[in-house]
User: Fold Serine hydroxymethyltransferase from [Mycobacterium] wendilense.
Amino acid sequence: MTADSTVSSSTAAPGAEYAETASAAYRAALEVIESVEPRVAAATRKELADQRDSLKLIASENYASPAVLLTMGTWFSDKYAEGTVGHRFYAACQNVDTVEALAAEHARELFGAPYAYAQPHSGIDANLVAYWAILATRVEAPGLAELGAKHVNDLSEADWEKLRAKLGNQRLLGMSLDTGGHLTHGFRPNISGKMFHQRQYGTDPATGFIDYDAVAAAAREFKPLVLVAGYSAYPRRVNFAKMREIADEVGATLMVDMAHFAGLVAGKVFTGDEDPVPHAHVTTTTTHKSLRGPRGGLVLATEEYAPAVDKGCPMVLGGPLSHVMAAKAVALAEARRPEFRSYAQAVADNAQALADGFLKRDGALVTGGTDNHLVLLDVTSFGLTGRQAESALLDAGIVTNRNAVPADPNGAWYTSGIRLGTPALTTRGFGADDFDRVAELVVDVLKNTQPQGTSKAKYTLADGTAERVHSAAAELLAANPLYPGLTL
Ligand code: PLP
Assistant:
């Protein structure tokens, strides 16, 4: 914690207050694991050491609190609980009911949503639940009514085939992968691009920002059943009120995937038109990125879509991971504390500091900056591909991921950019000055990296660079320890 000690102390990650107890719990757990498979115990210890020793700038990662992590290691893992709260296909689910209901209650309260579904195992699963809930509500239910049936099992083979054909013949409009959308938003290699006829909207080539008039024009022309908003690598805020207007005009359901920025919504950094929940019919998220919970997903919905979302299992999900739902309840309880708002604000402020740090050192940023939790640095100005930049940075202990930039000439594998996010290091206590230093170190590495010939993957790093940056990074990391007080 350097210059920003006021901000840092108010954003301190949960856990320091019970570090001694958590240390004892982990020591005991590792001893037990060691007695059965010592290599797993060793890898677990090493993973903590590696995470402690690297500058983690992966925009989709974070560090969950020991309370969240410990909650996942219990006997809830052993319980089958298909169905939903109070309505299970298995007996003896009363305690699963308790934790699932708690997770849903915290999610509803935190996000101001009429309904929350805590079962999705991941973000992709949350999106699948949402898509099928939309299809069930908008296509299957009216289709059944038209055929005079109440349930799909009541249909003749011929009528069922007609309904299946309708379900498989719907349209989805989502953000393209190269402008920051996610592969589950209608990208052909993903099931979303096979289930739906899909079209994609991009960003304004001149500014890199979403052009709402162009989205509206595409929606008018294509008339999608589902309009998807949300992103994995777009460094700007989205006006969800505008997206809803567009959806309403063409009769589409607005689905927002807030997987990346849910923490900024929970922490009230994104409010009004930038808060997706009041505008979307269905909102999906992961719980492990900026929200800082366990790996998993959530779906929030209006009353209209709630009954279909509630059937996510067994519609598209296997039995719920009850131990993870319990951890979601703990993480969401943490996110409802006032400190989480300070954390979320610091995530956004730090992204700004990181962007400014690049801009003042001649780094080229997609859209010219950021107003969320991530920046997209175009590394072609350093003569590198994203792949070379990512590898060279890793050699120096800086963990980022390569990412396409709009209309990327190097394609989705080599790419021309790297994506850097602030949620994880902000959890460690990094402040604005620390992120300026991070920008300096990243630029130091990239300036000292040379491509080898015409290879898009090979590079050489100037002698001494990795060592110099490693030791500067080590200073920053030592000043902002991960899980302070936790000793194994
Ligand atoms: N949606 C978005 C916008 C994402 O960025 C991601 C993950 O990268 C996902 C969904 C998928 O999440 P998961 O990896 O938990 O399935």
Remarks:
- The chain has two domains: 77-335, 338-479.
- The longest strand covers residues 171-175.
